[in-house]
Specification:
The protein is α+β, with helices and mostly antiparallel strands. It is about 45% helix and about 10% strand. Helix 2 packs antiparallel against helix 3, helix 3 crosses helix 4 and helix 4 packs across helix 5.
Length: about 170
């Protein structure tokens, strides 16, 4: 069975309930307004990335054309279309982080983890992604890991963090 076949009908049970809570925030004829949280929920349940089939299910569930879902999912950088690591290092790519050593931080992560930006470690544990401004310029260079921000990054700090996650 392919992973696509495994993922068919993800919008059931708890996933549907979670999406329905978001739908309830909008007028009844505007359920498509819940597309962003629906994408986030389905991505989370699918191990961190979306597939065309899952986006099609979201479109069907929200009563909108699939292309409208694809447009949202490809416009925003927080939606992944390829598998990512269990721990995704989202390194800020803004001018402030660049001036404060973001390139050195990325190079160190690549060396330490043995992967390049956009890749996943063979064990599926880590991936690295460049993201646009995360709005924490005073703590540059910085990154997001899950829902947490990590600021004033150094090699020593990254070593400690990676060791804790391994």
């Amino acid at each position: 069975m392919s992973s696509t076949e495994n993922n068919s009908k993800m919008i059931t049970g708890d996933v549907k309930s979670r999406i329905d809570r978001w739908i309830s925030h909008y007028p009844a004829d505007q359920r498509q307004s819940a597309v962003m949280p629906a994408l986030r929920i389905v991505q989370e349940v699918n191990g961190g990335h979306l597939t065309t089939e899952l986006m099609d299910e979201i479109a069907d569930y929200l009563g909108m054309p699939p292309i409208a879902v694809y447009e949202v999912a490809t416009f925003y950088g927080n939606y992944e279309h390829q598998p990512v690591g269990e721990f995704k290092f989202c390194v800020c790519n803004s001018i402030s982080c660049m001036l404060r050593g973001k390139d050195d931080i990325i190079a160190y992560l690549e060396k330490r983890l043995g992967i390049k930006v956009g890749e996943v470690t063979p064990d599926g544990k880590f991936s690295i992604k460049k993201v646009e401004c995360l709005g924490a310029c005073g703590g540059a260079p910085m990154m997001q890991l899950g829902k947490e921000y990590h600021e004033n990054l150094t090699e020593e700090y990254l070593d400690k963090l990676i060791t804790e996650l391994e």
